């Protein structure tokens, strides 16, 4: 396989669709009074979602690892945690931790972000990073568009706050507060990200 990068974009599109579907299905179950065993059905849905993310994580690491080795594959994962406004790469780890150990998605993402920053800090070498496409792109961002990295990190955390609130609402019966300002903030940050990205030379 000469270029495995398509698998990331497949991950991004497919997992985003899966998350949206998960939320919509949970909402439909929530509003239907005639459905029996709601809790059991929702738990099965959560298990399916978690297993899907675990599966994509293993497949992605396998594909990138076979192409570049595990070290570079891990660095690519760390880079993606910092440069994409949709938190799908972090969710590959944080969602299973939330499901099976009840660790808040935000707490997991803070740790993932710190690990990613330190990994890049201690491994960063421009020549080494220029040897693979995501590395080249990250070097370009560091040199010209650091704002894009900041916007990505901010949007990732806002997106995870929204998703954590969704999970708490459907699985822990907690009130979903501040939905509108969170969605508005997330939309604005993503639009700013896209504006900077498409105007990047």
TrEMBL record:
The chain crosses the membrane at residues 6-25, 45-68, 74-93, 105-126, 146-164, 176-198. The keyword Transmembrane applies. Keywords: Membrane, Transmembrane, Transmembrane helix. This is Uncharacterized protein. It comes from viral metagenome.
């Amino acid at each position: 396989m000469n270029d495995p990068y398509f698998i990331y974009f497949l991950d991004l599109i497919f997992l985003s669709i899966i998350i949206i579907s998960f939320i919509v299905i949970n909402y439909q179950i929530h509003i239907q009074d005639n459905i029996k065993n709601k809790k059991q059905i929702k738990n099965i849905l959560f298990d399916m979602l978690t297993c899907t993310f675990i599966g994509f994580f293993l497949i992605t690491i396998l594909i990138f690892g076979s192409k570049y080795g595990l070290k570079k594959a891990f660095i690519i994962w760390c880079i993606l945690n910092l440069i994409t406004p949709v938190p799908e790469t972090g969710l590959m780890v944080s969602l299973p931790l939330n499901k099976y150990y009840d660790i808040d998605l935000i707490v997991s993402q803070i740790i993932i972000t710190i690990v990613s920053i330190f990994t890049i800090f201690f491994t960063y070498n421009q020549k080494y990073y220029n040897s693979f496409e995501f590395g080249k792109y990250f070097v370009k961002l560091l040199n010209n568009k650091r704002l894009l990295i900041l916007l990505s990190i901010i949007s990732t955390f806002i997106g995870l706050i929204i998703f954590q609130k969704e999970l708490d609402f459907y699985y822990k019966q907690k009130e979903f507060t501040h939905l509108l300002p969170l969605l508005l903030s997330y939309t604005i940050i993503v639009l700013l990200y896209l504006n900077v990205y498409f105007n990047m030379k």
